[in-house]
User: Fold this.
Amino acid sequence: MDLSLMDINWRVILPEITLAVFGFVLLLLEAFLPKDKKRITGHIAWIGIVLSFLFCLNLYGTQLSSFKGMALSDNFAIFFSFLFLISSFFVILQSLSFLKREEQVRGDYYALILFATLGMILMASTLDLVVIFLGLEIVSISLYILSGFRKKDLKSNEASLKFFLMGAFATGFLVYGIALIYGSLGTTNLEKIFILIPLTETTLPGKDFLLYAGIGLLIVGFGFKIASVPFHMWMPDVFEGAPAPIAAFISAGPKSAGFAALLRIFLLAFSSFKPDWILIFWILSVLSMTTGNLLALWQTNLKRLLAYSSIAHVGYILIAFVAGGNSAISGVLFYLSIYILMNLGAFAIIISMGSKDREGTDLFKEYAGAGLKNPFLGVFMAIFMLSLSGFPPTAGFLAKFYIFSSAVKSGYLGLVIIAVINSMISVYYYLRVIVYMFMKPAEEDIKPVSIPFSLGLVILVTGIGILAFGILPQPLLDLAYNSIF
Amino acid sequence: MPSDYAYVGLFLLFGVLFVLFVFILSRLIAPYKPNPVKKENYECGEVPIGQGWIQFNVRYYLYAIIFVIFDVEVVFLFPWAVVYRSLGFFAFIEMLIFIAILLFGLIYVWKKGALKWV
Amino acid sequence: MVPVSYYILLSGVLFSIGVLGFLIRRNVIVVFMSVELMLNAANLAIIAFARNIGSLTGQVIVFLVMTVAAAEVGVGLAIIMMFYRNKKSVNVDDGNLMKW
Assistant:
């Protein structure tokens, strides 16, 4: 066996290599730069993201495969890479002013964001369970550190600890699930699994149990990672305790990466088992929607509210798994892109409303009257909240509409009715934010907050994006439809 | 078959009963005469120094963490070394890259002062 | 030769012990050790399967899982240390600032 450089198509993993190199450069810069020069690390980080994005753009439509199918560049992978890179870009922009305010400008923070992005891209652009696992771990471990980034803050510590314990627990399930699937089929390649499953059912009856157990464990593991009820316990605490840009990051990138892997695993590899796992996804979906929305009603903390709303949105997305089919998959892609925009925008507003001395409170009452004092923040917060609850002129409505309609077409009317009722419940708490911002009198005399350029840019771009895709969804829809595997 | 499970249940029952029986028997027939020497901590026959439950300095954990990470990476070197001859030059370069990545980590740790005994 | 099912059974038992330990124990370090036990149970299963199938892939997977576990140990111990420094406790019940 002679390996050589020529056998490997390096172009496929060029985006990943770029991110890794920039990550290492940032680590070294953090170690060697004097403290007052560290501001450039953030700018280097976003340049790295942009470069990686350009390489991805170059790969779109190539359908290449390398490392014996462990890395590939089908449109599905590239679409998700776009999502991850865009969300990381916005998170870095948010962090620029956040870290400056915290007086914690550090290169390793950005390096970890780049590494996490690298892991997410790995997860989406592979057909191998082991590589999915490795990508997932790169993401998770970076996030454990990032969520505990404010070392002296008790809440940040606690968030990090809970996130870590729950994440490691989920990893255990995931690895065991992979072990059982490997044991029963002898491969971890998703395409080979898809081909092998119809054969094994007839020839090796005894191994069925292992396979079923493996699939169950995979669902538990991924359930933790995407935070669907009943595996959601960590998410609200992590959102509340972690630094705000990191909470935004967790809700955008890693969650989409989890869905990318789930889509490939269940709608490709185990699609012939659909009658068996469909009920599990049905239950997970209903539980996530209902629990998320009901618990969100009682929240007094905006970040926690967004955590529960995020859990509810996982429930909506899981409907697509029950529905199945191409329109459902493209629905998920559309939903995730819109969801990332809404959430990152809302978090950018939360960051601009915060200040160093009361970091991590984000209580509703601090927002009383803020919309009138800061019309820019108020109006855009209203847009994000309306979009999250799914009102028609915004893209959030269309995102829900496509997933729900695909489920109706597949004949799951009951599930859609539950989802619509849930959406109506959710309107209450999303509107409450707007009511607080515009109609409640301020408790004390508040001054308008000054919005740094980078944060303003994030809010503006995401807000306009939501409105634009709400009115003209066709380009994004076409892109999503061309990107299914 | 229910009868198969009955065997398992019976086995379990006997297992538990046997352990209980042995414990109670030893309690009943063994003489109990404690003295300070007998209750002492066992430290390989040496005279024990201090308490068994002491707090280790937190710095040891720092070293332990760094050690664990760098130590386990060696796991990739062993299979590489075994088949090194048949893999050729490319594998050599690949391992150099791998070690270089570890080196970046080490430099970072070093510069951050985690290796200093303060 | 010991049949492969014995190894799988053992790994299943180890995995269950890990899960139970995670759910029952209160000391963060012990909880963490339970998680490691789960990972090692998976490793044992993978190795046994690899032997059974006669493929080397399983052994490589185990290497990867081991390194991931080590990275997790590093980060995990650091997080636990930070928690201990601020709280002077390694009891999971003391992580009670945020509920619901």
Observations:
- The first helix of chain C runs from residue 4 to 24.
